[in-house]
Write a structure and sequence with these properties.
Blueprint: E1 7-12, E2 16-21, E3 24-29, H1 33-36, E4 49-54, H2 59-68, E5 72-73, E6 84-90, E7 96-102
Parallel strand pairs: 4-7
Antiparallel strand pairs: 1-2, 2-3, 3-4, 5-6, 6-7
Amino acid sequence: MNNFNLALVEEIKTEWVLLKAGHCEIGLHKIGTQYLQSIETPFKSDNNTKIVFEIDEDIFSIHKILEAKNVIIKEIMSWDNYPFWICDGEDPEQNVFQLRMKKQVIS
């Protein structure tokens, strides 16, 4: 997946790729089956592209600030053995973005 001359940051084969694009990253992921099923409420967007912003600031503080400004932002989450805290949000045009902060290593 190097059609764009962007460095590969992270990949889950056939599911997810994160590409370095200057000072930000672009995440591309496969649309899950739950989004392909016919449902009563249509989705706002059928786009599966998101811009990933890796931040040095505390993601928990930034999350609170964005919530206070009524930005649509999901819960902060992570997984075992995954080195980042992440949360997705939406800009005013309903484009999805992601904030990600490297977890602190406690020694």
